[in-house]
Recover the amino acids of this structure.
């Protein structure tokens, strides 16, 4: 079992964050939501638990001041991403890399996600005082490719642009759910080992000022993504 196979999965789940999918809450959320992460392994792999826990971010911070949106994740895959909506730009910081790109207005590309299905489940969860509705998503092949369960609340309206990268859930999946995600359970099989990664909201700070720690990007010169793509590879 190679740990590097787990890193992309953890990173992609973390970037899902909190996204509103047809939330009935009218006022856009202003503030910061803190997400914690954990992993569940079969008993025979418990000796590896510490290694996996070390790969998970201690905190995933998701924020908005009512206009712009951002996500900040620490740990091995430390990354910060901020969407300036009126400016039409996305700013990213990862390690020493500072990158910017235009916010696409094209419809989201759901290629390869045609077989993904979502169904509302009976189970609900109480998270930070919010009663959350459950949705189960099969990643294809009757769940053999993995299963994710989302718990959402209608009482928070966190709704970044579709192509912002703040939410990695495909548009056709988001259209089948409603509310802002406060818990994600991702069940998967990596190299024959079953595991469950859990990301859940552990705290909410309301107010635009609380969002600034996430929305304030590092100072420096940001290279345009389009220019980087045009550069020849070594």
């Amino acid at each position: 079992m190679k740990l590097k196979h787990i890193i992309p999965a953890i990173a992609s789940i973390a970037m899902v964050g909190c996204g509103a999918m047809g939330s009935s809450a009218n006022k856009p959320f202003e503030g910061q939501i803190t997400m914690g992460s954990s992993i569940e392994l079969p008993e025979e792999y418990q000796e590896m638990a510490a290694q996996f826990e070390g790969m998970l971010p201690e905190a995933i911070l998701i924020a908005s001041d009512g206009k712009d949106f951002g996500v900040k994740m620490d740990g091995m895959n430390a990354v910060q991403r901020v969407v300036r909506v009126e400016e039409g730009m996305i700013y990213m910081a990862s390690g020493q890399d500072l990158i910017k790109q235009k916010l696409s207005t094209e419809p989201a590309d759901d290629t390869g996600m045609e077989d993904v299905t979502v169904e509302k489940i009976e189970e609900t969860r109480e998270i930070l005082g919010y009663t959350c509705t459950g949705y189960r998503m099969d990643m294809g092949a009757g769940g053999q490719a993995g299963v994710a369960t989302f718990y959402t609340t209608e009482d928070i309206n966190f709704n970044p642009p579709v192509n912002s990268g703040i939410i990695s859930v495909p548009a056709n999946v988001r259209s089948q759910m409603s509310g802002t995600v406060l818990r994600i359970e991702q069940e998967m099989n990596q190299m024959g080992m079953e595991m469950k990664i859990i990301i859940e909201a552990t705290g909410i700070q309301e107010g635009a000022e609380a969002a600034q720690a996430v929305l304030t990007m590092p100072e420096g010169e940001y290279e345009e993504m389009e220019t980087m793509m045009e550069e020849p590879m070594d």
Summary: Residues 152 and 181 are 4 Å apart (CA to CA). Confidence is low (pLDDT under 50) at residues 1-18.
